Recover the amino acids of this structure.
C-alpha cells in the first residue's frame, strides 16, 4: 500500500489516504518521495477549478526523491538515482512533438495529478522519459519547485532565443517571478522587475533585477516606453495591457506564463505599429528541464522555499491561498 495525502472532495482539507501500489509498467520508474513542492495548480486541482479533478485526489507535481524500482525496459535511470518529476508523468513518445524533443506539446501527455495520484505520497510512478536526474549541488528541497515554477519561466528563454544583450522585464515578483529574475540575471540580460509592492522592490534587486518599476504608476510605464525586448507576465490578474505593450521595443514580445483569468484585451493597431508579439507557453520538455537544472546548479539559482512537514501540508495550503507565502512551499515526506 502507498500512503498519501488526499482531498476527498472539492475544496476539502487533505487527509491521510492509502491506495494499492499500481503494477509497474515496463517503461516506468517508481520514486520514493522525499520532497514535493506545493503549486497553485495543486490548489486548482484540489478545488476542481478546471473541471478535471477526480477524487480522492492526491496532489503534488514538483516531486523529488530516489528511484526504488524500474520496469523491464528502463535504461535511463537506475535504482538509487536522485530524480525529479514535474507536471507530466508520461508521453505518447510517437508523435511529431515527441520525436523532435518537444514532449510538453504532446497531445497524449499524461499529467501527474490528472487521472492518477501525484507526489503527496510515499511513492509515485511515472514514465522514464518524464523523470529527470538531479545534478550534484542542487538540494532536494530546492529542486522540487524548479520542476514546475522553474521550468515555466525558463522555457521561454529557450523557445524564443533570448539573448544576453536583451532587456527583459518581469511582471509579478512571486512564486514564478522571483525565479525568473534569477534565471534572467544569470543569462546576462538587463532585468527589470514590475511590482506594486514596495516591500519587494529591494528584494527584487537582490534576486537579479537591475531596475524596479512601480506597476501602479502610469508615469513609470510612460518612462519605460519602447524599452523591453520581452515582458514575462507571471501574474493571473488583468492589468493595463496597453500600457505594458507600449514599453516593448519594436518586435518585442509580451509573454504569458501566468494564467490570466479574464480575456486579454489589446489593440491590434498597437501590435501592427511596432510588429509586436503576444504569446504564452506551458512547462518545458524533459530535455529543457534537464538543461534548466544544470543551469540552476551552475549558477546557484534556487527558489526561496519554506519547508513544511507532512502533517503541516494543510497549513502550507492555507498560507499559499492567503498570499502570505514567500515564495514556494515544499512538503518533506522523508522520515
Amino acid at each position: 500500500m502507498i500512503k498519501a495525502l488526499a482531498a476527498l472532495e472539492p475544496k476539502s482539507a487533505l487527509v491521510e489516504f492509502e491506495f494499492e501500489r499500481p503494477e509497474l509498467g515496463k517503461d516506468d520508474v517508481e520514486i520514493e518521495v522525499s520532497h514535493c513542492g506545493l503549486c497553485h495548480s495543486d490548489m486548482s486541482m484540489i478545488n476542481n477549478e478546471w473541471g478535471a479533478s477526480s477524487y480522492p485526489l492526491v496532489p503534488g507535481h514538483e516531486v523529488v526523491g530516489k528511484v526504488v524500482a524500474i520496469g523491464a525496459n528502463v535504461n535511463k535511470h537506475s535504482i538509487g538515482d536522485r530524480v525529479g518529476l514535474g507536471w507530466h508523468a508520461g508521453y505518447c513518445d510517437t508523435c511529431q512533438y515527441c520525436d523532435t524533443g518537444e514532449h510538453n506539446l504532446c497531445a497524449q501527455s499524461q499529467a501527474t495529478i490528472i487521472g492518477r495520484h501525484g507526489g503527496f505520497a510515499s511513492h509515485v510512478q511515472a514514465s522514464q522519459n518524464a523523470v529527470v536526474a538531479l545534478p550534484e549541488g542542487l538540494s532536494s528541497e530546492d529542486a522540487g519547485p524548479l520542476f514546475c515554477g522553474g521550468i515555466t519561466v525558463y522555457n521561454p528563454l529557450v523557445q524564443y532565443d533570448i539573448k544576453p544583450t536583451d532587456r527583459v522585464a518581469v511582471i509579478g515578483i512571486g512564486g514564478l517571478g522571483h525565479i525568473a529574475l534569477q534565471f534572467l540575471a544569470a543569462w546576462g540580460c538587463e532585468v527589470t522587475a514590475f511590482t506594486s509592492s514596495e516591500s519587494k522592490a529591494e528584494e527584487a534587486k537582490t534576486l537579479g533585477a537591475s531596475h524596479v518599476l512601480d506597476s501602479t504608476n502610469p508615469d513609470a510605464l510612460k518612462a519605460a516606453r519602447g524599452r523591453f525586448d520581452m515582458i514575462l507576465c507571471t501574474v493571473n490578474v488583468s492589468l493595463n495591457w496597453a500600457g505594458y505593450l507600449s514599453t516593448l521595443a519594436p518586435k518585442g514580445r509580451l509573454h504569458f506564463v501566468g494564467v490570466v483569468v479574464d480575456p486579454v484585451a489589446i489593440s491590434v493597431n498597437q501590435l501592427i505599429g511596432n510588429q509586436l508579439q503576444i504569446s504564452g507557453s506551458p512547462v518545458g520538455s524533459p530535455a529543457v528541464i534537464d538543461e534548466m537544472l544544470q543551469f540552476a546548479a551552475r549558477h546557484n539559482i534556487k527558489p526561496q522555499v519554506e519547508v513544511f512537514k507532512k502533517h503541516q501540508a494543510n497549513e502550507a495550503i492555507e498560507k499559499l491561498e492567503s498570499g502570505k507565502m514567500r515564495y514556494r512551499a515544499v512538503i518533506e515526506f522523508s522520515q
The chain has a mean pLDDT of 96. The CA atoms of residues 196 and 215 lie 5 Å apart. The chain is about 25% helix and 25% strand.
